[in-house]
Amino acid sequence: PRRSLALKPLRMADAAAPAEDAAPAPVEEEVEPPPPPPKMSQALPFMECPPALDGSMAGDVGFDPLGFTNWIDVRWLREAEIKHGRICQLAIVGFAATDLGFRLPGEMHQVSSILAHDVALKYGAMNQLLIWLGLFEVFSLVAIFQMLFEDSGRQPGDFKLDPLGFCKTPELEADYKLKEITHCRLAMFAFSGMVTQAVLTQGPYPYL
């Protein structure tokens, strides 16, 4: 009897062992890692940076609050930005120089910068500007078309015009591109302010 009592708990444990082995092990569900945080704009830290503004272009600080780069090729936008900036840099010099007294001989040139537009229309000079600048636009559009649709490798605003060799190395080229786009943006604001002030004051430079 003692032997049977001693073996009884052992047999009960043996009987319970298969039931424990048969119980399915709990399966741990794989938790997906959280998505990476969105890249924020350097210029507007409270807004997400548009995907097209990846920092590959000089002066790119993620500034596109209206989302133009979402539906217009960023290369076309940069081409327009550089073109308008270069024109404004030239316009500032010419606008200020004229009102400082640097004028061509002839009666039609003896006017202020703000009145020059109407005088140029009267004498037909604007028609000549339209013809010659239109001709230049035709050639530039060919280069832009090849850049956008034929992968020519051309960079926006690049017409290979560097007769003095300022951009001899990639480092110098990147530095001058940044300087140019910075001055282009400043010139667009400055020219707008100069014209507005000249119209409001109807006075000489500096239009105070």
- The overall pLDDT average reads 86
The count of helical stretches stands at: 5
Q: What Rg is obtained from the alpha carbons, in whole angstroms?
A: 36 Å
**H and E order:** HHHHH
How would you characterize this protein structure?
It contains five helices and no strands. It is an all-alpha fold and 208 residues long. The relative contact order is 0.11.
Q: How do you describe this structure in short?
A:
With 208 residues, the protein is mainly alpha-helical. It contains 5 helices and no strands. Helix 2 packs across helix 5 (170-201).
Characteristic terms for this protein:
mainly alpha, 208 residues, elongated, 5 helices
Outline the secondary-structure elements.
Blueprint lengths: L1 H21 L51 H26 L13 H11 L1 H25 L20 H32 L7
Helix pairs in contact: 2-5
